[in-house]
Amino acid sequence: MASRRRLAATFVATAAALALAACSSATSTTSSTGSAPGQGGSAVGFIFVGPKTDFGYNQAAYEGSQEVAKKFPDLKVLTQENVPEDDNAARVMEGMIGRGAKIIFATSYGHLQAAEKVAAAHPDVVVVQQGNVITGTVGKNIGTYFGTVYEPVYLAGVAAGKATKSNKLGYVYAFPIPQTINNINAFELGAQSVNPKAKTYAVNTGSWCDPQKQKTAVDSLLSQKIDVVTQHQDCTSTVITATEAAGAYTVGYHADASSLAPKGWLTGSQWKWGPLYDDIVQTAIDGKFTGSKYNANYRVGLQNGENPFVQSPYGPSVTDETKAIIADDLTKLKADGASVFTGPIKGQDGKVKIKEGESLQYGDPGIEGMDWFVDGVVGKIAK
Questions:
Q1: Mean pLDDT of the chain
Q2: C-alpha count within 13 angstroms, C-beta hemisphere, residue 45
């Protein structure tokens, strides 16, 4: 099994479609300045779309940046919160480059266009973007990365399926992008595995972090006798506290927010970006960061042992039986070839989307481009 260090070196290697060339050797690419992309800088920059104290996505990414600061004391770590997903992102990254950054982490899904623009203008700077997919020709100094977080989301679905009394689960999500859709599907599949009657009601907010919309979504779900609520939002505290106040169960996402729900917390899926960030930085410093003619995508998960996420702690109501089921499922998901998305799986329309004996593996276009809900999810995909 390749080590995390080797994976970081190879994720930028040439690959057809979305294949991960985990066994290929990375080679140095010399830029017009005479050094490989990412070398010779005095700083590394991180931009976040929201606040670093959001009990969610941005907090997890910020904590990862601070791990880089510990790992590389000779590098100044530059961070900027609340960077919009527009030309302002490019402006902030340009400013960091002006302050000596030769490695930039653009951590939001909507930062991709700005990241590509900055990478094209600065071939000596490594720019990596969190969570998206690059298609077509890309430069030698740009890549993307993410983890198969839908796997622990599946396990959290198991906890939800065992806890619900109404067989109704709620899911508050931001935008209908593949990441949110495959998370919703994985959550429902996990719940179905222990409770075939469980259904997941998906509500869209159209925002990564709008507390008022989140509160409205939670109130709507709870009014339908939903007794477990989870989410795919950047800032998570509003959904969690509103659910806790109503006496319902909650499942977290992005970061450990169990302190916000001492009674109703079940578990969650949270990012642990530090080791992956460290390896990407080291790869660039070593002059081994290379781009790809087709894709520069890097996906890691349970099957290769390099997953950048962990399961959140259990809450007080999770039974030993549920913990044992989740532990067994976790072991199964770590096996080579295992997948949350193993057929037969039907879509909402009743048609088979994944046939029996077939499965979608991490990095597969069927996951990276997922645009359908599984049977058991209630609600239409937002336009």
A1: 87
A2: 29
